[in-house]
Predict the structure.
Amino acid sequence: MKPVLLPPNPVQHFYLGGDRIAALRGIVPETDRQPEEWLGSTVSRFGSDEIGLAVTDEGAFLRDLVSADRAAWVGARGGRDAADLGILVKLLDARQRLPVHVHPDRAFAGAHLDCPYGKTEAWFVLETEDDCAVHVGWNQDVDRDELDRRRDAQDSEWMLSRMNRVVVRPGMGVLVPAGTVHAIDGGIFVAEVQEPTDFSILLEWSITTSTREESHLDLGFDAVMPAVSTAKLDAAALDALISTAGTTAPGPAFRSLMPAAADAYFRLFDAAGDTAGDAASLDAGFAVVLVREGSGALVSDAGTVEVERGQVYAVPHAFGAWRLTGAAEILVAAPGAGWPATLRGGDVR
C-alpha cells in the first residue's frame, strides 16, 4: 500500500491570511480569509460535518479510507473511532494577529465534550516577517475574576501585556500545552501539529469575525473558563516549550523538531533526501508528509512514490519503514509515541 496524494484543502476562517499557503500548494486563494489548510485530516471543524476533511485525488474522504481498512492505515487497534489517526496537521498563514485563546485538555474534553482528546498543539515556523512573535502563557499570575472582566470588556491590551512574548524565526518549534493562553502575530506562517480536535475558547473575539456566542464551545463561559490556566508560566517552563533544532539545515536522518514534552501527543520530523541512496529510514506508521522543497521519492519495500515541492501525502502504516531519496526536503508529522495505547477512552476493535 502506497502513500496517497492529497490535493489542497484550504479552510475559510475568521481571520485574514492564506497567500503563502496558496504559493506553496500552487493554488489561487478564493478569499483573503483562507488562512488554514488541514492536511490529512479525518476530523472536521467544530460545528461542521465536512469542513476540514481531507479528500484524495480521486475524490474520496481520507476518513472513509481509514475507516474501511484501519489496520493498513494505522497498524494498531484503539482510538476514538475507526477513522482516528491520533493527529491533526495544519498549515496556518496569519496575515493578522490571531486572537488570545485557549484549548481545553483531555480531562475537560472527556467531561464536557464527550471526547478523549483535548487540544495540545505546537507550531513549527516556516516563514516570518521581522520582529513577529508568538504569545504563550501568562507572565504573571492572573486573577480569574479580573480575567473574566477583561474578557467581557474585550481588553486586548490588558491580556497581551500579561503574556510572554517570544520573537520567532524560521525553524523554531513551540509547544502549547492545553490550558495555556496563546496568540500569534500576523506575518507568521507555521505548520501546526495538534491533537485531532477543533476545540477553542476565545478570550478575544473582537479582532475577528467571530462573536461572543461562538467563543465558548456552546457551553457558556462559566463552564469553559475552568479550562483556562491563570498561573504564571515562568522563564524556565517557557524555555522548555521551545525547540531550535530546525533552525539549521536538515540532513538525511529524520530529526525531531519539537521539545521532548510533545512526544506524548505528536511528533514532527524533517529530513533532506540523500542522493547517495543510503538515507535513514522512518519506522512504519501513519504519517502526513509535506514536501517543502525540491523533488525526490519516498521509498520502501512496498514501492516508490515520486514527490515534489508543495505536495502533501498521507502515508499508511502498510507502506512499512521508508526513506527519502533525491533532492527533496520534507516535514513529517506522526501520532505521539505509544499511540493509541496512550489514549484513554475509546477502543476500536
